[in-house]
Structures are given as structure tokens and as C-alpha cells.
Amino acid sequence: NPDYGIPTPTLVSPPKGQKNGGNTKIGGIAPSNLEIALLKQYPFDSAVQRMTVVAKKKGAQYYTVFVKGAPEKVASFCRPETIPAEFSNLLQYYTKQGFRVIGASAKSLK
């Protein structure tokens, strides 16, 4: 596929007219031409306690890597200055109440 540089990736796009979390850059509504290719997916693996997706927005010059999983594992991939100061306290607070907590992170690769 010439748009993404690999053979036929999995393509995703938001439903037409779907609110986009209030993102003012695109007016709060997902554009009808928004298309994201999922170039590589690493499914959840209990040994590493995370899953990873490498994606590219159509027309973008960069890739984005998304990781989700155990908060401690996801945080270990982040720069320390990007982790909120209260991270450990909040994680402990919610897990002691029995909540399941999932960490998420994203990074652009140029």
C-alpha cells in the first residue's frame, strides 16, 4: 500500500460524526477522512504484562506507538519527568480498593 509503505495494513477510523474527546485542533468532531493504519500489533502477553500497537495516521510523516498494560510496566518505558508525581500513591490507593488499573502510554517516532 503506497500510503503506508507496507502491504495492506489493518485500517481503522472513528464512526462518522463521532465526538473526538473535545480536541479543538479538529473541531471536536472526527473528520470523515481520518484513517489510521495499524502497522504492527503485539498482543497482550502475561509474561511482559503489556500489549503494543504501532500505528500511522494517513498522510503523517511519523509513526505512533501505543502501549497499555500493568501500570508499573508501562511507567518503566516512560521518561521519569512524564510520570505524574502522585503516580505511585494513586496506583496504591486504587489497587487497595480492588480496582483493576491499566496504564497507557503513547510516543511518536520520527
Please state the average pLDDT score. Answer: 83
Uncertain regions spanning at least 5 consecutive residues: none
Reported for the largest beta sheet, the result is:
5 strands, antiparallel
Percentage of residues in strands:
25-35%
User: How are the strands of the biggest sheet laid out side by side?
Assistant: 1-2-3-4-5
Structural class assignment:
alpha+beta
Annotation, overall tally of beta strands: 5
Rg is 17 Å
Shape summary: elongated
Give the number of helices: 2
Oligomerization state: single chain
Helical fraction: 10-25%
N-end to C-end Cα span? 20 Å
Secondary-structure element series: EEEEHHE
Write a short abstract of this structure.
By secondary structure, the chain is an alpha+beta fold. The protein has two helices and five strands, in the order ββββααβ.
Q: Which descriptors apply to this entry?
A:
5-stranded antiparallel β-sheet, elongated, 2 helices, 110 residues, single chain, alpha+beta
Tell me the layout of helices and strands.
Elements: E1 10-12, E2 36-45, E3 50-57, E4 63-69, H1 71-75, H2 87-96, E5 103-109
Antiparallel strand pairs: 1-2, 2-3, 3-4, 4-5
Q: What does the model show?
A:
By secondary structure, this protein is α+β, with helices and mostly antiparallel strands. About 15% of the residues lie in helices and about 30% in strands. It contains two helices and five strands, in the order E-E-E-E-H-H-E. The protein has helices at about 70-75, 85-95; strands at about 10, 35-45, 50-55, 65-70, 105-110. A hairpin with a 4-residue loop joins strand 2 (about 35-45) and strand 3 (about 50-55). The longest helix is centred in the C-terminal third of the chain and has 10 residues, at about 85-95. It is elongated, with a radius of gyration of 17 Å. The mean pLDDT is about 85.
